[in-house]
Design a protein that fits this description.
The chain is mainly alpha-helical. Helix content is 71%, strand content 0%. Helix 34 runs parallel beside helix 37.
């Protein structure tokens, strides 16, 4: 104990290594081998020294030990002594303030601190502490003390009244640090709501309001955003009723600002005022609020940008809710008068359907109508009557009228308004939906589209006779040759109708046309009806019907099978249809049917155009895999147990492919595709028998199969099984065994299959972070140098960076380590660059391609340490004669889009090359990407861009005559940006 105390005295006097020594002292105190009092007594000479630096070191040691002790360590008597000591040190010397604040911050959180001690702290702080003269960290410490007090001990200080409030607002007055401001803005509402403001209400508001609107420019280093600051500031300004008289005029005043961000902030603040303040306060400003909102919403000026207009409509909606609260009755005079003002302001746009603001005015009225039933009825009555009474309208006007009526109908439906209850529409309300039905049969596609959208909205309010007409229209449109957009909208209407009237749709549309559909030889018509039926995949009522019809159209004819599988692909890909996919997996369901049919077809060597068609087999595999992926473990196990017997030759019997007959080779090759579709997404909890044998058989099949899709499927399955099931050091010999076998297979004539298998296994091991992965990557690097295998081996480095949606991912229950791409890149990039620089020309290209593949998908953070070595290679490729110029350009574009800093220093080197490519390349894609790169160059600093501006604009002018429209469009976009670089404010 004496040794520790002597050591602390020596350390504190010297001022070195205080923290580590204090940690030893606090440990001694915690374990009761030393008391805190003994520790303080040992510092007597230091704490009473005439040298303030030595005294400061003593206080630092005191606080350092204090912070290492638990919050419940001290009893009130001990805390009282600590409290007095810190207060005395606070006024000792201004240099003591930062460390004492840290001590206060910790002690106010202690369990046994009393009200009197907290009051003593603030009685000491208030007369002696000027917050804004302190450093940022020290101010932050003080605000953290306030945060704890506001949340936990505010009642202890309430009796201090205006003095404490003044301390708080004066401490933040003039604060500019965004990190401190966000902390203050988050804690002030809690304080202001629970502390009396009294005569300081206006002064408190002014101190906070001086930050409105937020003037803060984010940087990459910013931990907070401007939006966070603005949102929290608005909450402070509207958190108490006393601020209403100051806040509403502030919001209205700032709305006059020209900056878009200031307008948006002001509108957001005004919306919060309407939501949080007493409606009577809002009522006093209603005319001025509407005057400004009308200028924004109802005029077609720069100020009426969509985002600002939407925000203004949000304010108007909040205002109307506030008016409803004032009355407590929807039909009272104030709301009615205000609605009259709104309708009168909109009237000239409602009468002129060709006006730019016709639809925006309708949207405004819909927002207003959704605030109350009374508003809905009044607006619907006004708008419907104007629109229904229009005659001699043009095609454009018809489209706008239908859209407007659809929006108003949607408002009525959302507000549960019966159209027949709308005043003056009691006898005319059916005309509305009839209007939609009439124009859904029009000859012009744009009118049909508009009518279908309105009908979809109105589906559930159609009468019986209208629905009969509606179904006829849908049947006609489903069967007809229409545009893709009309077909999509038709199916959307069909789906909506089936949601509300299942039995009716089944009877009137589906069953009525099913026989025609089944008996027809028109494959296009079958495709249309099958697509229509599949769009109902969300409705359980139609599950069996969909499944039965899909099964009926599989395996009979090639064309029918192809369109059915296309529908199935779309079905299982759509997350909305998850319940239908589970239905497919039921015993005796569609999954069972597909597997049984294709297993029998392959084994019996049936119709080769269906059962061994590569496109069809790929679709079948995708569908099976997608279904297996979403079902649970028990269902997966049931499928595996049910069908594993059919794959016995692959799963349980050693295969020697060369000794098999041609028929058996074909069966094995195609059966492995089906096996992969079952096993690929199997949960790793489900164990497989004879795993090693299965992997060896897959390698055998992938090596010797003459069919590319079969070989690829077997390679993927090998990789998947290794990733999921080969674990532990004891299995390392297996990985070595597979490598030896594949090395011997490289001598075969079909070595391409072997290279693909090596690539998939390398990826599998890399994803998993397997201890053997580096050996396989090294092998792949060595194979790049081989003139025979090298070109093909580059695909391995492409695979290592790519993510496959269907294979070797977490959704398939594979093991995927975090940042695996980055680890691989860092391991291979230097060997690749070194080999590129030293290899003969015959294989040099292999390394270059691999480098490009490795760069793809990695961020600048990963690339930066190697960038100085990579950039010369990229620049070398920016030439029209280079084969890989497009890939190099795409890499450049990605780096420029992410504003890679190092590229700024090389603008002089690559901008001329980009200009040359944009003119000289004979490929449109290369010219477009080169122009996109030039466009993104403008993100760099003005001082670097200005010397290049004249050259770039001059050269781009030559590209304006490009024969391809898409290139010309990109030229105009890029040239416009370069023209404006010196008039845009330069952030740097």
């Amino acid at each position: 104990m004496t040794y520790v105390l002597n050591a602390i005295v020596d350390v504190v006097k010297n001022g070195n290594d205080i923290d580590s020594t204090c940690e030893l002292v606090s440990k001694e105190i915690s374990e009761k081998r030393l008391t805190f009092l003994q520790f303080v007594e040992s510092l007597e000479e230091i704490l009473t020294s005439t040298d303030k630096e030595i005294r400061l070191n003593g206080v630092k040691a005191f606080v350092a030990v204090l912070k290492k002790l638990p919050l419940d360590f001290f009893v009130p008597e001990e805390l009282d002594y600590i409290n007095q000591f810190l207060c005395e040190r606070f006024i000792d010397h201004h240099s003591f303030v930062p460390i004492v604040l840290i001590g206060i911050e910790y002690t106010v959180q202690m369990k046994n601190i009393t009200k009197q001690m907290i009051v003593r702290y603030f009685n000491t702080i208030m007369p002696h502490f000027h917050c804004q003269s302190q450093l940022q960290n020290d101010r932050n410490t003080f605000y953290c003390i306030l945060q704890y007090i506001f949340l936990n001990r505010l009642d202890d200080l309430r009796f201090m009244g205006p003095d404490f409030l003044y301390c708080v607002i004066s401490s933040m007055d003039g604060e500019r640090d965004p990190n401190n401001l966000i902390l203050l803005f988050r804690i002030l509402p809690q304080f202001l709501r629970h502390y009396p403001l009294g005569h300081l209400a206006e002064e408190t508001f002014d101190v906070i309001a001086c930050y409105f609107p937020i003037d803060f420019y984010e940087t990459e280093e910013s931990k907070i955003t401007r939006d966070e600051l603005a949102t929290n500031l608005s909450r402070c300004l509207t958190c108490v009723e006393e601020f209403a008289d100051f806040c509403i005029p502030l919001a209205l005043q700032k709305l006059e600002a020209s900056l878009k961000v200031a307008k948006l902030d002001s509108l957001h603040l005004l919306k919060l005022c309407c939501e949080n303040f007493d409606p009577i306060k809002i009522k006093n400003h209603i005319e001025e609020i509407w005057r400004i909102l009308k200028m924004i919403i109802m005029t077609d000026t720069e100020d009426s940008a969509d985002e600002i207009r939407e925000a203004a409509i949000g304010v108007l909606t909040a205002l109307l809710y506030s008016l409803t609260i004032i009355k407590g009755d929807n039909e009272q005079e104030q709301l009615s008068n205000f609605l009259d003002i709104v309708l009168k302001s909109s009237n000239r746009f409602l009468l002129d359907t060709q006006a730019t603001l016709f639809i925006p005015s309708i949207k405004l009225l819909c927002s207003v109508g959704k605030t109350s039933n009374y508003a809905s009825l009044k607006i619907a009555n006004k708008v419907y009557l104007i629109l229904l009474n229009k005659s001699d309208v043009s095609r454009t006007e018809i489209i706008r009228i239908i859209e407007a009526m659809g929006l108003i109908t949607n408002m009525c439906i959302q507000m549960s308004i019966d159209l027949s209850s709308i005043p003056e529409l009691e006898t005319r309300w059916e005309e509305i939906c009839c209007y939609f039905l009439l124009y859904a049969q029009n000859e012009f596609p744009e009118i049909i589209m508009s009518a279908l959208r309105a009908l979809k909205i109105s589906t559930k309010i159609l009468t019986n006779s209208q629905r009969t007409n509606y179904y006829c229209i849908l049947i006609k449109l489903i069967k007809s040759d229409t545009t893709d957009s009309i077909r999509k909208e038709t199916l959307s209407c069909f789906k909506e109708a089936a949601t509300h009237f299942k039995e009716e749709v089944n009877r009137e549309i589906i069953q009525f046309n099913l026989n025609i559909f089944n008996q027809s030889n028109d494959i296009v018509l079958k495709s249309k009806w099958l697509n229509a039926l599949c769009c109902l995949g969300k409705e359980e009522y139609f599950f069996t019907l969909i499944s039965d019809n899909l099964c009926a159209n599989l395996s009979e004819k090639q064309a029918e099978t192809e369109i059915t599988l296309k529908c199935l692909r779309d079905l299982v890909r759509n997350v909305e249809n998850i319940n239908l996919v589970h239905h497919f997996a039921l015993n005796g369901g569609l999954l069972n049917f597909i597997l049984t049919t294709w297993i029998n077809g392959i084994k019996s060597c049936a119709d080769f155009s269906i059962f061994r068609n590569e496109i069809i087999l790929e679709d079948v595999s995708f569908v099976i895999n997608s279904i297996v992926k979403v079902i649970n473990n028990s269902e997966q196990l049931q499928i595996l147990n049910q069908f594993s017997q059919y794959f016995n030759d692959i799963m349980n019997t050693k295969i020697n492919f060369k000794t098999l007959s041609d028929t058996q080779q074909g069966i094995h090759s195609y059966m492995v595709i089906l096996l992969e579709s079952i096993l690929n997404s199997l949960n790793t909890n489900i164990k497989l028998n004879n795993m090693i044998l299965l992997i060896e058989n897959c390698i055998e099949l992938s090596t010797y199969s003459n069919n590319s899709i079969c070989s690829l499927s077997a390679s993927r399955l090998t990789a998947t099984l290794i990733n999921k099931y080969i674990d532990g050091d004891e299995n390392d010999f297996l990985i070595d065994k597979f490598k030896l076998n594949l090395e011997s297979y490289l001598n075969l004539s079909n070595f391409n299959n072997v290279i693909i298998q090596i690539s998939w296994i390398t990826k599998s091991l890399s994803l998993k972070g397997h201890r053997k992965m580096l050996q396989w990557i090294d092998w792949s690097l060595n194979l790049l140098a081989d003139p025979l295998y090298g070109k093909m081996m580059t695909q391995c480095f492409k695979m290592l960076t790519q993510t496959d949606d269907g294979y070797l991912n977490k959704e398939c229950f594979c093991s995927v380590k975090l940042l695996y791409r980055q680890r691989i890149f860092c391991y291979v990039i230097e060997p690749l660059i070194s080999k590129y620089n030293t290899s003969p020309e015959s294989v040099k290209e292999n390394y270059l391609i691999s480098i490009l593949y490795q760069m793809d998908g990695n961020t600048y953070v990963t690339l930066s340490p190697y960038f100085s070595k990579i950039l010369p290679l990229l620049l070398q490729l920016l030439s029209p004669e280079q084969v890989y110029v497009l890939q190099s350009l795409q890499t450049f574009r990605n780096l420029l889009e992410s504003k890679t800093p190092v590229l700024e220093d090389y603008l002089q080197s690559f901008v001329p090359k980009l200009l040359n490519l944009s003119q000289s390349s004979k490929y449109m894609n290369i010219r477009i990407v080169a122009l996109q790169c030039l466009y993104n160059c403008c993100d760099y600093s003005l001082i670097k861009l200005l010397p290049l501006k004249r050259q770039v604009i001059s050269e781009l002018a030559k590209c304006l005559d490009d024969k391809k429209r898409l290139v010309r469009k990109e030229v105009v976009r890029t040239k416009s940006r370069w023209l404006s670089i010196d008039v845009v404010n330069d952030d740097d």
